[in-house]
Structure formats: structure tokens, C-alpha cells
Amino acid sequence: MKHIEDFLNYLTLEKGYSPNTIEAYGRDLKDFFNFLKKDWKDVTKEDVLLYLRELQKKGFSQRSSSRVLSSFRTFFKYLILESVIKVNPLSGIKGIRQTKSLPAYLTMEEVEELLSLPELSNPIGKRDKAILELMYATGLRVSELVELKMGDLELDEGFIYVMGKGGKRRMVPIGEIALKYLSIYLNVREEFFEGKGNPFIFLNYKGEPLTRQGLWKIIKGYGKKIGIADKLTPHTLRHSFATHLLERGADLRSIQIMLGHSRISTTQIYTHIAAERLRRIWEKFHPRA
Question: Can you say how many angstroms the Cα of residue 192 is from the centroid of all Cα atoms in its chain?
């Protein structure tokens, strides 16, 4: 495991990879190591292919498998650079061909049902209501939401400041409904969550900042209550936010700014979602379909 730790330090200090990427790479490599139970010097091309087939059996998507393969490529290049190995076991393994799929999103009715679930009679419910309303109102990534701090709020103006990918800070409007429930949560935050002096907005019952994993469990738990847990991913509310804006006439450039996309081409995926939805409606209702 020493080589993994050294590799992750290398990515941090010399390559400047983001914490999320480093965490994912470390998890991929440790899972691979636990599966193989052999030294890195003895890893073969067949070992890698066997593991990738195992991931496929477990239901890994093409995107997830491709990321795992990318982790391995970077790691074994590092081992060669450090003279730990002489032959790269990934030599000759081609990238996993990905079929493009449209991101899942919720209907407005599903969003309404999801947002109605938190129980406002207790502090946990008030926190969860604020989380769900804010995610749908702003389209924040999960990592962006858990990293929000009290100093990022401009409640009087109805905006929040968000630190996105690449350290780019953007201003995102909240909206009256999300603002209302965020204010309700903030009224109980310090007392119940022991949040006094803690700069992070969303805390667990111990007064510690929510993690991405903790937030995901919260969202997944509510999804199970209304039977959409399989449909919910960390990005589902973000996709729903963008899709519903586009369907109601918002322009792509504005959606791009709010989502924090560096390229308009990334945002254009939502035009495909809207077009696909229109096609399904036409096929369902048109007499000549």
C-alpha cells in the first residue's frame, strides 16, 4: 500500500489533482489491490482485464469502468517513472468505448414529492428541507453544497457564492422558497447542531460538516420513501434544475453560468434531454406517431 500513498502524494504535490480525483484514484487502486492480493511488480495485463470484467459483472457503468482504467494508467506510469516496474501491464489495453447516455432527471411532480418529505417539526427535517430546496433551486454539485460556508451567503440579496471546479467562484441566485427554508434551518443550526464557530453551513448532529457521502445517504433515503432511489444520483437534482429551466425558456448561456460549466458544449446536453422529452410526448399523443 506504500506505493499507493506515495502515488497519491505525488498527484497532490506535483500534479495538483483535485481532492475528489485523488480520493477516487485511491479507492480504485485499493479495491484493485484487495482483489488481486499480489505485488504491483507481478501485475499482468490479464489481471487488469480480469478485474475490469469483474467490475462489469457488478454492474459498473462504462463511465465508471473508464475512470478506473484511467486511475490504473496514471498509477502504472508513475511506477515506471519511479523504477518500481519496467513493463506497463496496461500496454495494449484500449480505452473503454462509452455510449453517450442522457443524464437522468426528475419530473416536476417527482421533485415536488421529494421536496415535501422532510419533517419540519424537528431540526434534522429543517436541515434536510433546506438542503433539498437549495440543491433544486441552484443546481449545485454535491461537493459544492457541502463546502458552502456562512460567509458565502448573501441572503439579503438572494444570492450565494459558490466555489466550483478549478477554484472558480460564481454567484448563483437562490430564489424565495429555498431562501425561506434555508433561513428556517439557520435559526436552529447553532443551537441543535452545535454549529457555533463552525464556518460550514450544513452540519450533522455532532456539529461536524456534512460529507459528500453523508449528504448522498440523506438524499438516497428520501428517494427510497417515494420509490425513486434507483433514479436518484448525486447529480439528479442538478440535472432536473437545468432541464426544467430550459423547458421553461431559459437560455443556455444563463444555465451555463449558474451550473459553473466552463464550456457551453457541456451545457448543451440539456437541449438533448428536452428534445428527447418532446419526441416521447409526440409519439404518445400524435395520431400519426
Answer: 28
CA distances from 69 to 10, 29, 60 (A): 19, 10, 12
Set of cell numbers at residue 13: 504535490
Query: What are the backbone angles phi and psi of residue 3, rounded to the nearest 5°?
Result: -65, -35
Assign 3-class secondary structure to 19-71. Answer: HHHHHHHHHHHHHHHHHHCCCHHHCCHHHHHHHHHHHHHCCCCHHHHHHHHHH
Asked if pLDDT for residue 68 goes beyond 90, the answer is no
Q: Percentage of the chain surpassing pLDDT 70?
A: 90
The pLDDT, as a whole number, for residue 191 is 80
Place of cell 465508471: 64
Residue 15 DSSP label? I
What's the pTM value of the predicted model, to 2 decimals?
0.64
How far apart CA 274 and CA 45 sit, in angstroms, is 42
Pick from 116, 114, 70, 117: which is nearest to 94 by CA? Answer: 70
Tell me the C-alpha distance between 49 and 52, whole Å.
Answer: 5
Give the integer Cα–Cα distance in Å for 94 and 187. Answer: 54
Beta carbons within 8 Å of 16's beta carbon, 6+ residues apart:
none
Cβ-based neighbours of 219, under 8 Å, separated by 6 or more: 131, 132, 232, 234, 237
Burial class (CB in 10 A: 0-12, 13-18, 19+), 220: middle
232/107 Cα distance (integer angstroms): 12
Task: Find the radius of gyration of the CA atoms of the chain.
Answer: 22
Give catalytic residue positions: 141, 165, 235, 238, 261, 270
pLDDT at 46: 87
